[in-house]
Design goal:
Elements: E1 2-5, H1 12-21, E2 26-31, E3 36-37, H2 43-46, E4 54-56, E5 62-64, H3 66-76, H4 89-109, H5 119-139, H6 153-162, H7 176-186, H8 189-197
Parallel strand pairs: 1-2
Antiparallel strand pairs: 1-4, 2-3, 4-5
Helix pairs in contact: 1-3, 1-6, 1-8, 4-5, 4-6, 6-7
Length: about 200
């Protein structure tokens, strides 16, 4: 399988999950501005949506959307326990959290990366993110990870998007559980391996 990614983007989440599950992936780096790939080619010809991640399966099928890709990878290796079994109530709780991270956190960060975003909009999005993190802070109370002591695909996604906070000057100092989670996740071997492969750490 081949993962189309951009360093440090939301594609880091499935990259982490693949390492956690022991699933080998071929990596194809994408320039999100030019839509060119590291090797010659037009990314839009692969994924007309134009953003990462995308996962090309061995049979040629292409999966897009991070929350879907991480669940697919987890289901390839159910013994990794990165996602609860399909149709279990716990699986719906996982999907609930993936949806929250996707819509309330991930997409709220997006305008903060755009230098053309007006300062008023930037301030509003920063304030909105802080309100949304109160839910995550409560979820992490007394827990190592979002659902207890076991790392899940939702944790990989939360770590990835929360890693953007310092890049766009979102101060998470009022969320000690979130900050402790970030430190805990950052030292996991799979997280380290994925970040090293993307050139984010040495």
């Amino acid at each position: 399988m081949k993962l189309f990614y951009a360093s440090g983007a939301c594609s880091l989440s499935p990259h982490i999950v693949a390492h956690e599950a022991g699933i080998p992936l071929e990596l194809q780096k994408v320039d999100l501005k030019s839509k060119a790939m590291r090797t010659e080619g037009d990314y839009l010809a692969v994924n007309p949506k134009g953003y990462v991640p995308a996962l090309q399966l061995d049979n040629g099928e292409l999966l897009t959307e991070g929350p879907v890709i991480v669940q697919y990878l987890a289901d390839l290796k159910p013994e990794s326990h990165l996602a609860p079994p399909p149709a279990s109530f716990e699986r719906y709780r996982l999907q609930e959290m993936l949806g929250y991270i996707n819509s309330e956190l991930h997409k709220s960060y997006s305008p903060l990366f755009n230098p053309a975003t007006p300062s008023e909009t930037r301030a509003e999005r920063q304030a909105y993110l802080l309100r949304r993190y109160t839910v995550v802070e409560k979820q992490l109370q007394g827990r190592s990870y979002l659902f207890g002591d076991r790392f899940s695909v939702a944790d990989a996604y939360l770590f990835t998007v929360t890693n953007w906070a310092r890049m766009v000057k979102v101060d998470l100092g009022q969320f000690p559980n979130v900050l402790a989670f970030q430190e805990r996740a950052a030292v996991r071997p799979a997280v380290q391996a994925a970040m090293r492969a993307e050139g984010l750490i040495k």
